[in-house]
Amino acid sequence: MSSQSYDVIVIGGGAVGENVADRTAQGGLTTVVVESDLVGGECSYWACMPSKVLLRSGAALAAARRVPGAAEAVTGTVDVRAALKQRDSIASNWKDDGQAKWLDSAGIALVRGHARLTGIKEVTVTQADGAVTVLTATHAVVISTGSAALLPDIPGLTDIDPWTSRDATSAQQIPPRLAVIGGGVVAAEMAAAYASLGSAVTVIARSPLLGGQEPFAGELVTAALIENGVTVLVGPSTTEAHREGGAVTLTLDDGSTVTAEKVLVAIGRTPRTQDLGLNTVGLNGGDWLAVDDTLLVQGDSPTLAGDWLYATGDVNHRALLTHQGKYQARAAGDAIVTRAAGTPVDNAPWGAHVATADHAAVPQVIFTDPEVASVGLTAASAVKAGYRIRILDYDLANLGGAAVLAVGYVGKARAIVDLDREVLLGVTFVGQDVAELLHSATVAIVGEVPINRLWHAVPSYPTLSEVWLRLLEAYGRPGFTENDGRKN
After folding, report:
1. Contact between residue 366 and residue 55 where contact means Cβ atoms under 8 Å apart
2. Is the pTM for the entire model greater than 0.85?
3. In which residue ranges of the chain is pLDDT below 70?
């Protein structure tokens, strides 16, 4: 057994843990990352990056077919071998040499193995060869272990060796038939990807797809999936699974069955907090970790006193998105450095050491075709929160920029206005190439830019950004009445 001491210990070397470590190291604190798998984590090898590559070939091909001149030049379907080769390259062939090298270049130590809390500011790491290293932290321990796919308790499911998101994004063969259980982001994206790669895909969802978004987002994505040959079953639940030879049969509660070579389960996530030694600090293994806005873990145990245990990323269940986890990581890292220096922490809303945006300004892109890009509150969540709102809708097909992008462009935009403050609470775009519109909406919401000032942010023509002008026109120009347009 060996022992080492650092100012900061980060458990989990994914994108979030790397960013915490980077901030504390830049702040002059000695920092070590403990990782039991690949440095770079879920996003680099099994989520954000490989999944978007799998989607990109089909989306690019579909976009070309919507442009006269380009459409006539398209003579084939997606080259599956080339698409998978590009996916493998983006995932660094599931080797983390480059990521580990970056840690070293940033002055961050790396210890490989399984970490467990064994006391206040103490982490014991068991390596693959059985060697044990005890790490102690002078200032902080940060848990950045992320989340894993949740598997439902369906009879026979574990016997059929179901896919999770990891399997779907790293598969080396495209199954002839793929059944997808779930209706969220992973389900929709992987259904789109595998349909473009040649699978006959069936989605089984208990409720309409993309339920957390504005209803029209799920409706447009569902329609596109069906148009691309995907069977979408909304309402039934899977009650049983069994395999006969190379095929799996799923029995649904309406008496019907679905047969496929592979079954992807995409119903949600569970925190990677099992076997972390959380009981040593009065917490329960397997639970999400509650945190304050500086990402300090909350709890009644006296062992948590002293501002030393943090949780960033998926594991705290605030916003299960890589970019939001990295945002938290920077806030937490800077808070750790500030507390170590004994200087005041800026924990006011939108302060330097807090993750205020987690509450009502979270941007998200769903890379289906059409794309879904949203930030802030939906109409339903805004009403539930007690805001007095106005909904502004616009058909993106009416934009000159949309006509240039594609024949028969299909898309919609929605903005939610807080009538009392006349600022935006939420924006949703659905359509081809809308992802790059999202940051402008995020800036407007986070900055609480008054509607009157937005009139002076002139969108370029002909681009999709013209939608901002059309939404403002729907709201009404200052100095004009809503009824007749004449100046007051």
Report:
1. no
2. yes
3. 480-488
